[in-house]
Structures are given as C-alpha cells and as structure tokens.
Amino acid sequence: MTESPSYSAANPGVAVILLAGGAGLRAGLDMPKQLAMLGGKSVLAWSLDAFAAHPAIRSGVVVASADTLPYLPPLPPGWDVAAAGPERRLSVASGLEALAHVADDAIILIHDAARPGVTGGVIDNLLNCIVGGAVAAVPALPVTDTLVSRTGTTMGDVMDRASLVQVQTPQAFRISPLRLAHQSWDREQIATDDSQVVRALGHDVALIDGDARLHKLTYADDLIKLRAMLAPEGQAEMRHVTGSGYDVHRLVAGKPLWLGGVEIPHSHGLAGHSDADVALHALTDAILGALADGDIGDHFPPSDPQWRGANSSLFLSFAAERVKARGGRIDHVDMTIMAEAPRIGPHRAAIRTRLADILALSEAQVSVKATTTEGLGFTGRREGIAAQAIATLSLPFE
Ligand code: MG
User: Fold this and answer.
1) How far is Cα 92 from Cα 278, in angstroms, rounded to an integer?
2) Distance, CA 274 to ligand 1 centroid (Å)?
3) d(CA 394, CA 191)
4) 159 CA → ligand 1 middle, Å
5) Cα→Cα distances 264→92, 96, 136, 178, 348, Å
6) What is the mean pLDDT of residues 315-319?
7) How many angstroms separate the alpha carbon of residue 52 from the centre of ligand 1?
8) Residue 182, Cβ density class (10 Å: 0-12 exposed, 13-18 middle, ≥19 buried)
9) From ligand 1's centre to the CA of 380, what distance in Å?
10) Statement: residue 237 has pLDDT above 80
C-alpha cells in the first residue's frame, strides 16, 4: 500500500484569494457582512487569521469592495489588497492579476470571506488532494434535508439526495489551469464559484470532506449559529448586560409634545435640539449603556445642525443597529416617564407599540410605565418631563 501524498515544504507555494466584496446581510445588517463582528473580531479576520496561521501559505490577496477597504484588519506579511469587481468572477480575476507574480506550479486557494470557520484540517486536505494530482479540489457536505423540485409554489419530484452535495469554500486549484479557465470563460455564463469554471474546461474537480464550521453567513441568524460553532470552549453562550438611561427636557408652551415616539395632544411640548423626545433619549442611552458605547450626545452631538428637529426614533434605531452589528440582541426594555401632565396612561399602549416597532421587538419585550412626582420637584411643578429606562441585552463574548 502506498501512502497518500501529503503537502510538505518542498511542494509549490500556496497563495490565497480571499473574496471580501459581499454586500450586507439579507436580514438587514447595514454593513458588508464580512465586517460583522463575531466573538471579538470581524468575520473577515477569522479566515484571514486561519490562512495566516497555516505554514504552507506564503502570500495572499484580499479582494475587497471600496466600502470594506477602510475596515480591513492589518494584513499578514506577503498579503496584498485588490479591488473587487461587480461580480464574483471579476473579483477572482482581479485577485489572479494581483497574484501575477506567483509561479505557474503554485496552488491557489479561493475563499469567500463570509465563511469564517476555516480550519487547518480543511486546508491540509485540499492541499494534499492537489499534491496528489488533482487540478481542483473543493470541500463538500452531504445534504441532510429532503430536496424536491418546485413549480411555482407547488412541490415537484423528490431529488436523489445521495447524489447531491453542498459545495463550500476554500476551493483549491493549480494556478495554471485556473488562469486559463478564467481567460477562456464565456462572459455571458454565470458561475457561482471557480470549480464550475475549471470544470467547464474539462477538468475533474475532486471532492473532499467539508466542515459544518464553513457555514456561510447570509442571514442575521447565521451569526448566532457561527458564534456557537466557533466560540472557544465555554464561551458559546451570550453574556447578559444591562444599561440605564435618564433624560430631562423642559416643557414650553405651544410646541408639539413627542413622547416615546408618539405625538401627544398637550398645551406644552418639550424643548430641545431634536424633537426632544425625552423617553426615546433615555431608552437610546440605556441601550448604548448596555453596549458600553458612550451616550446619545457622543453619537449625535447637539452642536451638529443636522440633528436640529430630528425625529428621535432615528437615535433609537441607531442604537438597535449597534446591537445587531455586535452580534447581540435586545431582550427587554423598560421605561418610566415622570410627568405631572399630561396623563400618560391613555397613550401607554401606543407608546409601547411604537417602541416595539422601532426596536423590532415583540410588545412582550417592551414595558412602559408612568408616574407623577406628587407635585414635588421640577416635574411636579410641570416645568419639565423626565424619563428613565433600562435595557437588557445579550451580547457575544469578546
Ligand atoms: Mg435629551
């Protein structure tokens, strides 16, 4: 029996094309998904670190979109940056161009930065497969769900699951046939990955065992899955944090009164730079407090004229986005509005609905309370309204 060939230092060099041109999450993260935070570093940094730690990998190129560039982590020695194209194939071409100096016998790994769970084991298996004679090798996982065809919304025939696999990245190639395949690729044809391009030239593409940790980040829920899979021992669970917020605004005659995102009929309204919604300000500060991310004035300075008269729901949405961007979630918010007048009771339900709406929470996760101060103090004298809030969040370990 001969031993299967394995990669060694004597073998040709290995370079990586790391594709980071992706847009936001389908579930609505307002940033390129490869920049989402996962356990203290960006999704992109996870694969970059995995490649940099592998002894065979000597160089690489991060193919990044213009909006990703300013957020790239420091690159390891031998790594470079290239501009992403409008479609995947053009991004790979851009990466290949940046690796024009790489010798003809080199091995190239092409990887989608939205798959953070690269392991040394998968890289080893891919390299061994190429050193053993394959032109191309890709990781693949068996299909566990039943697959059926469809016509519109009607179920069609059941597919033969045993003959199907899910293809992942990184994918490994001899660089010469890959260069050739890209040069000769018909521009009209769409390829979702490079193994298809190489296969279209008549080369066999070898399948190696995939890894569940190579799961692709597509939806916000995938961040939770990936965190659980990639977290160090004992840190898969989220940590629970709370933050408090407090705010006061002065009541003045003849202004509209905005409270908790709802306009309330009253002789007086709150004065301030924005719409002065004291309840939304207290809640925004509570969420920022739980994130240990400064306060509302840091993010929206009153000195900045663009926030004059601003709808304060903007500030609250912003805080909720900051939670999402950290891979966290808001579990519960609770607020108390302190006012002698108007009576808040009749508007409580509307405020609760509005807060749940802004924060994308269920009403069960939102509590709104109100109190007078028995005629005491500035609230008692109807000079102003005060609000305090508490936010409870779950955040990943960092
Ligand atoms: Mg305020």
Assistant:
1) 51
2) 8
3) 39
4) 59
5) 56, 61, 66, 66, 11
6) 96
7) 47
8) buried
9) 19
10) no
